Amino acid sequence: MAGLTHSPRIADQAAGGQNLLVRILLRGFQLPGNLVADRIGARSEDDRMMIRMLVGILFWNLVIVVAAWFIYSSLG
Q: What sections of 1-76 are H helices per DSSP?
């Protein structure tokens, strides 16, 4: 077993790369809500969270509906 070594540093680096990708995607997903929260001056994290959720749901639903409409209209 002397030849088999486990390096936790390599595992941590691999997990860090995945976490970075998740953080980038999450920031992009929350961007519309963050922009609105900044614009209206929400400072409390609870207020910002509620605004992010509301704006995010509305924005991304609109994006999905418009994309589905374009796909449907191009097929017919």
A: 8-40, 45-75
Q: Is the dihedral of CA 54, 55, 56, 62 positive or negative?
A: positive
| Global confidence as pTM | 0.67
Instruction: Say how far apart CA 48 and CA 54 lie, in whole Å.
Output: 10
Distances in whole angstroms, Cα of residue 65 to Cα of each of 29, 55, 58 = 16, 15, 11
pLDDT confidence of residue 14: 55
And the tokens for 66?
A: 């418009």
Averaged pLDDT in 10-residue chunks for the chain of 76 residues = 52 67 93 96 94 96 97 89
Listed by start position, the domains of the chain span 12-75
What integer pLDDT is reported at residue 43 of this predicted model? 93
CB atoms within 10 A of CB 58: 13
